[in-house]
Write a structure and sequence with these properties.
By secondary structure, the chain is of the alpha+beta class. 32% of the residues lie in helices and 26% in strands. It has a 6-stranded antiparallel barrel. Strands 6-7-8-11-10-9 form a 6-stranded antiparallel barrel. The longest helix has 81 residues. The radius of gyration is 41 Å and the shape is rod-shaped.
Length: 271
């Protein structure tokens, strides 16, 4: 130590020794640095994986909400179309939604979420945003069954919008076709003619579109032409229906029993 303080040449020797010792110090310290770096790297990787999982879950939730918003937007557009049609025609209406569809291929019947508790009655007309859908065949307290106009057992009084010619349209059993079996061969009917309700069956108010004529076949040996039409309503797509009241009276939601009036005046015997 005394020689180190008094002799300057020992400082050069120390510097040389430090250069020789540095690799040994580095090798001794290397495992600790490697361990620390590996730990930090693993910690950062674990944190990144955790953040990645959280971001994926958040993205999935937001995507799900976006899909729901898209469905709500489309539903809003459909409901606006329904309400606009009802305002144009001035009928009293109630919106109902489909609950289920009859899986029997020979029965075109659906179930809606409105029943007699909401004033629904047997025979009531149902339409969608595009045209006549069907009518109620069974009104239960909380739900109702609606038969489609394409059911083989259904018939509706229609008229050709172009010339006022009246006839009967019956269901064909096919979801995209109704038939007009009672038109004579010489009837004035053309492909593309619009069929609307005539209002003469006391079920469907007049003026609602029913369908458009798609094919006409006139055979010499037959007295009646074979006429097919495509329904105007989206029978296999619509989920919201308008239930129609043709009268102007309020919808009877609940049956209200009148309470007997009480006479508050005292009788002569009580005076």
């Amino acid at each position: 130590m005394i020689a180190d303080q008094r002799h300057e040449h020992l400082k050069n020797l120390r510097s040389a020794l430090s250069v020789i010792v540095y690799p040994i110090q580095y090798l001794v310290d290397l495992p600790f640095k490697t361990q620390s770096a590996a730990y930090e790297s693993l910690s950062e990787r674990a944190q990144l994986l955790k953040e990645n999982r959280a971001l994926k879950q958040e993205a999935l939730i937001l995507k799900n909400r976006l899909l729901k918003f898209s469905a709500l937007e489309k539903e809003n557009i459909r409901l606006r179309g329904l309400l606009e049609n009802s305002f144009k025609l001035g009928e009293q209406v109630l919106i109902a939604e489909l609950l289920s569809v009859n899986l029997n291929p020979y029965k075109h019947v659906v179930v809606i979420n409105k029943g007699s508790r909401f004033g629904i009655f047997n025979g009531q007309a149902a339409i969608d945003a595009y045209g006549v859908y069907g009518q109620v065949i069974q009104a239960n307290p909380l739900s109702s069954e609606v038969i489609l106009i394409t059911d083989p057992s259904h018939a509706i009084s229609v008229e050709i919008n172009r010339n006022g010619l009246r006839t009967i349209a019956v269901g064909s059993g096919l979801i995209d076709r109704i038939d007009l079996p009672f038109l004579p061969n010489n009837s004035d009917i053309q492909i593309g003619d619009l069929l609307v309700t005539s209002g003469l069956d006391n079920t469907f108010p007049a003026g609602y579109p029913v369908g458009s004529v798609t094919s006409i076949s006139r055979e010499p040996g037959n007295s009646f032409a074979i006429v097919h039409a495509q329904p105007a309503a989206y029978l296999d797509k619509s989920r919201e229906l308008l239930m129609i009241w043709s009268n102007k009276e309020p919808i009877p939601l609940f049956e209200v029993k009148e309470q007997p009036a009480t006479n508050k005046e005292a009788t002569p015997g009580e005076q």
